[in-house]
From TrEMBL:
Coiled coil: none annotated. SUPFAM superfamilies: Ribosomal protein L4. This is Large ribosomal subunit protein uL4. It comes from Dorea phocaeensis. InterPro entries: Ribosomal_uL4, Ribosomal_uL4-like, Ribosomal_uL4_dom_sf. Forms part of the polypeptide exit tunnel. One of the primary rRNA binding proteins, this protein initially binds near the 5'-end of the 23S rRNA. It is important during the early stages of 50S assembly. It makes multiple contacts with different domains of the 23S rRNA in the assembled 50S subunit and ribosome. Part of the 50S ribosomal subunit.
C-alpha cells in the first residue's frame, strides 16, 4: 500500500494515510489513459462545421457560354469550385466525433492516472478543507501553504463554500469524487484531495 502524508490547511504534516492499492497502486496502462483523454476531447467536439458544395450555393443555373467557339475553356456553371463564389470541393459537413469506451476501460484509465500522480508524488491529501464564508483569499493561502500552483482539488459533497472560493483562481479546478476524469488529472500538475474525498474514491473504484 502506498503511504502518503496528510497535511492541514496550514501546510503542516499531521499524519499519514494508506492508499488502497486497488485504486492508487495499479499497473499504469498508458494506452487506456491516452484513449480516455482522446475519448473525452472527441466527445466534447461540437462537430458543427459546414461549408456549401456546388449543389448548395445559389446561382449558376445556366451555362455561362456555349460549349464551343468562344475561345474560353468550356464551363457548365458559374458555381463550380474554380469560380469565385463557387462551391467548396469535398466541403465539411456536421458530424459526430464521439466514440464509446467500456466502463472497465474507463475505470482502469482513471486508476492508472491516479496511480501515476501518487508515483510522481503529485498527490496531496489534506485532512479537511472547510470555509465558513466564500473567500478566494483563504483558498489562495491554502495553495501557498502547500506550495502548489496548478491543481485539481477533489472535494467531498456539500462543500459549496470551498468550491466558490476556488472558482476565481487561475489554474485551479475543483471537482467532486463523482466528476473526476483522466483529462483533468493529467492536465493539472498536482491533485489535492481531502481525506473524505479519498475515502469516497476508494469506495467507488476499489
Amino acid at each position: 500500500m502506498a503511504n502518503v502524508s496528510v497535511y492541514n490547511i496550514e501546510g503542516n504534516e499531521v499524519g499519514t494515510i494508506d492508499l488502497n492499492d486497488a485504486v492508487f497502486g495499479v499497473e499504469v496502462n498508458e494506452h487506456l489513459v491516452h484513449m480516455a483523454v482522446v475519448n473525452q476531447l472527441a466527445n466534447n467536439r461540437q462537430g458543427t462545421q459546414k461549408a456549401k458544395t456546388r449543389s448548395e450555393v445559389s446561382g449558376g443555373g445556366r451555362k455561362p457560354w456555349r460549349q464551343k467557339g468562344t475561345g474560353h475553356a468550356r464551363q457548365g456553371s458559374t458555381r463550380a469550385p474554380q469560380w469565385t463564389g463557387g462551391g467548396v470541393v469535398f466541403a465539411p459537413v456536421p458530424r459526430n466525433y464521439s466514440f464509446k469506451m467500456n466502463k472497465k476501460e474507463k475505470r482502469a484509465a482513471l486508476k492508472s492516472a491516479l496511480t501515476a500522480k501518487v508515483e510522481e508524488k503529485k498527490f496531496i491529501v489534506v485532512d479537511e478543507i472547510k470555509f465558513d464564508e466564500i473567500k478566494t483569499k483563504n483558498f489562495a493561502n491554502i495553495l501557498k501553504n502547500l506550495d502548489v500552483k496548478k491543481a485539481l482539488v477533489v472535494l467531498e459533497d456539500g462543500n459549496a463554500n470551498v468550491e466558490l472560493s476556488a472558482r476565481n483562481i487561475a489554474d485551479v479546478k475543483t471537482a467532486k469524487t463523482n466528476t473526476i476524469n483522466v483529462y483533468d488529472i493529467l492536465k493539472y500538475n498536482t491533485v489535492i484531495a481531502t481525506k473524505a474525498a479519498v475515502a469516497n474514491i476508494e469506495e467507488v473504484y476499489a
